Amino acid sequence: MADRTLLWVDLALQECADSTRHFAEFFRIRRSSAQLEADAAECPVAICFEYDFPDKAGLKLLQETKRLHPSLPVLMLTLQHSEDLAVWAFRARVWDYFVKPVDRRDVERCSESLLRIDHRRGDDRMSVRQIPPVPQETRLRRFTAGSQQALAPAVSYVQSHYADKIMQAQVAELCSMSSFSFSRQFHSAFGLTFQEYLLRYRVERAEELLLNPSVGVSDVAFATGFRDPSYFGRVFRRLRNMSPSQWRQHQMEDARPSLPAPTLIAM
Length: 267
What we know:
The chain is α/β, with parallel strands linked by helices. About 45% of the residues lie in helices and about 10% in strands. It contains eleven helices and five strands. It has helices spanning about 35-40, 55-70, 85-90, 105-115, 150-160, 170-175, 180-190, 195-210, 215-225, 230-240, 245-255; strands spanning about 5-10, 30, 45-50, 75-80, 95-100. It has a five-stranded parallel beta sheet with strand order 2-1-3-4-5, sandwiched between helices. The longest helix is centred in the last third of the chain and has 17 residues, at about 195-210.
């Protein structure tokens, strides 16, 4: 077992199988106490929020943790799954989103990527982005594992293979749909095309890697599924209105502590 700590926040309302067992092969699991803020400040490798049926309070806790520690990777495990919830997690910059029961191969991929990153202290110095509102469905609706929607295999595949070449026909087949039907249903559920969703997901992952100044921009491009660094730069600029290098510089400037104004001493 590795000596890096994974902070685990169990917000499941029902008794269920232990979801930590696969992660325990890579991390020391430490369940969070009531003092979550103090626990997170000790700089674990990541923090994992486990739900069965997420409610508004539970998702707000994840939001607040990400706001206070924006550079700390956050994982989310849930039994309930819907496209609204998956999109919310994606926009809230959740590092990885799992639907229970968790596949060991997904845990291995996620854990290895986390261990490659040089996590730094001083989360409070990183710039904070606005997190989207909690999806309305969490207030009333309850989903079971059997009610997962038809596009769930596509979302899961993107999360597991975003660094690989992904063809729309390939994920359509995973969902047992024709490419045309998949395209129509995906756009209806997410409000954007599958290819645009994939690009946005890759750029979100790229931002996490860009926070490490020792990783080159080209390496970030290849690690997140872009085979051409110049194309990565064009996509990043379109979505973020700046180049990857400028975005990184902006983060460094935000992280730099401000100096007090000099005091003029009369002679």
